[in-house]
Amino acid sequence: MRNITASALLLVAAFFTTNASALDSSNTPVVVTPLASKTTTASGQPITLPQKNVEVQVSAYQIAPGATLPVHKHPFPRYAYVEQGTLKVTNVETGAANTYKTGDFIVEMIGQWHQATNIGADPVKLLVIDQVEQGAKNTILKQ
Predict the structure, then answer these.
(1) CA 41 to chain centre
(2) Phi and psi of 10, rounded to 5°?
(3) Strand ranges (DSSP E) for 3-102?
């Protein structure tokens, strides 16, 4: 859990910084590489945050080669960094699909039914960050 938290903090720091480098407290150079800057989700929606009691949840996902997640949607913002593998995400409402590879940053669609498939030969590893109303879940499975 400690590694996940540290990775999440580094990801958030890289996401919000505009400088290419910084200094730590001992004046040793620290390289900061911005990974993404987004204002819309994968389906073009503006990114909006929960309006009350925001809770940040961080998870590590590992998806086996060939595995397909069930059709689902997210009521709140979800961000994912692809640490390894190749993931195809399909909006089942529109048929539009995006493929994400190692090093890509995903801003998932909100309130739209979609599913993801590991289309590579290796497991997909994701660092996932959810911003939800406190105590809420961010995945709703289609019945």
Answers:
(1) 11
(2) -65, -40
(3) 21-23, 29-31, 54-63, 72-73, 78-84, 86-91, 97-101
Expressed in percent and rounded to 5, the helix, strand and coil fractions of the chain are 10, 40, 50
In this prediction, residue 14 has a pLDDT band, given cuts at 50, 70 and 90, of very low
Q: Are strands 86-91 and 114-118 parallel, antiparallel or unpaired?
A: antiparallel
Nearest to 65 by CA among 116, 123, 127, 115: 123
Classify residue 73 as exposed, middle or buried by CB count within 10 Å of its CB (0-12, 13-18, 19+). Answer: buried
**Token pair in block for residue 1:** 């859990």
Is this structure's pTM higher than 0.85? no
For 83-135, write each residue's pLDDT tens digit: 999 999 999 999 999 999 999 999 999 999 999 999 999 999 999 999 999 98
3-class SS of residue 137: coil
Which residue in 48, 49, 56 sits closest to 128, CA to CA? 56
Task: Kindly report, residue by residue over 23-77, the tens digit of the pLDDT.
Answer: 556 777 888 888 888 999 999 998 888 888 999 999 999 999 999 999 999 999 9
